[in-house]
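Exercise 7. Predict the joint structure of the components listed below.
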Amino acid sequence: MSAPVVVVGAGLSALRTAESLRKNGYDGPIRVLGEEPHLPYNRPPLSKQVLAGGIEVEELAFPMRASVSDVDWNLGVEVVRSDLAAGILTTADNRTIPMSALVVASGIRPRQLPIPGPQKGRLLLRTIEDALHVRGRMSAGIRLGILGSGFIGCEVAATARGLGCEVDIVSLDSEPMIRPLGPDLGAGMRTHHEQHGVRFHLGRTISQFTGDDQVTGAILDDGTHLETDLMIEAVGSVANTEWLDGNDLDLGNGVLTDGYLSVVHSPIPAVAVGDVARHPNALFPGEPLRIEHWSMPTDMGKLAGKTLAALLAGKKPEGSPFTSLPSFWSDQYTWNIQSFGIPGAASEYRLVEGTYDGDCIVEYHDSSGLIGVIGVNRTAELLPYRRRLLARYS
Amino acid sequence: MISISVDTNTCSNYGQCCFEAEDIFSLDDKGVLQFIPQADDSRLEELENAADACPMQAISLTQS
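Solution:
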C-alpha cells in the first residue's frame, strides 16, 4: 500500500482539505497528525460564547461528513522535523512517519512578548484548554488586564464586561482593531468599548509584570501600575513552521504557496492551508498574504484538496487559481461587525452610510479601487459591495 | 429535495449563510435570520457552502 497523504494539524483547514481530497477523487489513505487532543473544533466562540458560559466545549466539534469517516486522526502528536525529499516526518516522541504527500495545516500560536517579572498567570486564548482555564477564573468584580487590542483582546473585553469584570486594555496601537478597521472606525470602536466601561491604555506596553510568583499586576511603560486578578495576552500570532526548517522552503511569515496553494519548491506534492499559509489571491494581485480570518480555511481547503488530488494523479492543477473574498465578523456589545475583502491594506477610507460611532458602512480603497468593506449592524446591506469585490476577478 | 434546518438556539444571526445562498437565507429588518426550509437537489453545493460558512455551525441539511 502506498504511503498516506499526511496532514499536519487537525483544525478546520485539515478537515476541509480532507473533504476536498475525497470529493476530488483521491481514495488513498489520509492520516492527520494533530498536536491538540481534539478533533477539529470551532475556535471563534472561545472568546465569546464559551467565556460567557453560553456554549459548552463539547458543542464546538465540527460535524464530519461521511466522506472523511475513514480518515485516520492521530491526536496529541507533535511533528518536530521533516524531510520532504525523503517523504518523512518525525514526531516529538521520535517516531518516523512516511508520507506520499503533505498538507501543511499546522496553524499559528499566540505570540508572547518577553516581559520581565513573574511568569505564572500569563494567560493566552487559543485552545479549548485556554478558554476553560480563563472561564474558570472570570467572574463579576474581578480586575482583568488585557495586553493587545486586536480581535481577541476586544472580544474578550466585551465578554468580560458582560460578566461584570473590570477591564483595562493595554496596547501599543493608537486605536483598538486599527489594522482591520482603520483609524476612524477604530476610534468608533474605542468609544463603543469606553461607553461600556473599558479603560484603554493606548500607545503603551507592559514593561514589567508585578507579583511574587504569580502575576498580580503590571507596570506600563509610562509608569502606570495596574492591579489585576487576571492577565490575558493577545498580541498577535506566530506561524507554526519550525518543523519545516531545512527543506529550502520560503517560511518567511508562514509557508509560501503558489496560486493553487501548492507549497513553492516542495520536492513532493504538498499544499498549505489555513492560518499558516501565505498565498496569492487572484482577487487581490500583489504580495502573497497570510490571512487569519475564519473564512479562509474553508475556502483554501476546498482548492487545496483539488490541487493535491491532481498532483497525486500526476497532473498539473487546472482551472481557476485561488480566488477568495476574505471575510470576518465580530460581535462586541451592540455592534455586529462584518467585513469583506482586505480593508487592512487600504490607503483610503470612505464612510458611505451612518457615522463612525454607530451603525455604518465604510469602503476601503487602494490605487486599484475598492478592496474592502465593513458594516456595523448593516450586514444585510453588504451584498452589493460583496458583488463588487468579487467582480475584481472575472 | 434537501431539507434545511437551523438550530435557532445556536444561530447568532451573523448572516454568513445569506451570502452563500441569498434566495434561501436572509436577515429580516430586525437582523433575524429567515430561511426557506426546502430546496431542490441542484442547490446542494451552495447549501453545503452556506452550512460550512456558518460561524456557529447551526445549519444542517438532509437529502431525501
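Discussion. The helical segments of chain B are 16-20, 44-53.
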